[in-house]
């Protein structure tokens, strides 16, 4: 099917156009990406999440007289809870849109992906909707983590690292 271009009025055959021809034709219309600005936003937002997490951990250590190791698990739980609450109100998605990868990398991004999928499919029911779809995005992350931990554990066992566990 012939199509006219805006600039020259030349007719093109779209069914015979190669991907390289299409890329050359569409390149002037593709907006440029502000890579440096996106990197700064990701750095600032990811850093802010980490600073908030450090503040929560310091609070657990000061208020409940915990060690750094004891305070780390409740800190992660509180960060996940904050992420889920912000996702439920639609705030986290707006923050993620502005900051990009800065909110996707920490544990809060993982909680956001799980909560978003659960909210999106809640009308389909708890088992087939929420339970069936919640792990679509996060499932690959969980599987990779388990497989990587297994492989590293096998390597440690073969190499004799890690000491005695008896």
Provide the fold topology.
Blueprint: E1 2-4, E2 11-13, H1 19-26, H2 35-63, H3 68-88, H4 91-99, H5 101-104, H6 107-120, H7 126-133, H8 135-159
Antiparallel strand pairs: 1-2
Structure description:
The protein has 166 residues and is mainly α. It has helices at 19-26, 35-63, 68-88, 91-99, 101-104, 107-120, 126-133, 135-159, and strands at residues 2-4, 11-13. Strand 1 and strand 2 (11-13) form a beta hairpin. The relative contact order is 0.07.
Overview in brief:
The protein is mainly alpha-helical and about 170 residues long. The protein has helices at about 20-25, 35-65, 70-90, 90-100, 100-105, 105-120, 125-135, 135-160, and strands spanning about 1-5, 10-15. Strands 1-2 form a two-stranded antiparallel ribbon.
What does the average pLDDT come to? 86
Trace the largest sheet across and list its strands. 1-2
Amount of beta strand: under 5%
State Rg: 24 Å
Shape: extended
Order of helices and strands: EEHHHHHHHH
Report the strand count. Answer: 2
Total helices: the number is 8
Give helix % range.
Answer: over 70%
Helix-strand category: mainly alpha
Give the key terms.
single chain; 166 residues; mainly alpha; two-stranded antiparallel sheet; 8 helices; 4% strand; extended
């Amino acid at each position: 099917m012939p199509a006219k271009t805006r600039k020259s009025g030349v007719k093109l055959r779209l069914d015979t156009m190669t991907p390289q021809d299409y890329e050359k034709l569409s390149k002037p219309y593709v907006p440029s990406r502000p890579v440096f600005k996106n990197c700064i936003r990701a750095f600032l937002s990811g850093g802010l999440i980490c600073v908030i997490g450090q503040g929560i951990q310091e609070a657990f250590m000061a208020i409940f007289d915990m060690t750094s190791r004891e305070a780390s698990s409740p800190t992660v739980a509180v960060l996940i809870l904050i992420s889920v609450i912000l996702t439920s109100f639609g705030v986290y998605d707006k923050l993620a849109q502005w900051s990009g990868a800065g909110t996707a990398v920490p544990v809060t991004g993982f909680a956001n992906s799980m909560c978003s999928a659960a909210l999106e499919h809640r009308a389909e029911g708890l088992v087939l909707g929420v339970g069936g779809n919640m792990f679509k995005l996060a499932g690959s992350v969980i599987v990779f983590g388990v497989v990587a931990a297994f492989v590293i554990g096998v390597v440690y066992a073969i190499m004799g690292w890690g000491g005695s566990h008896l």
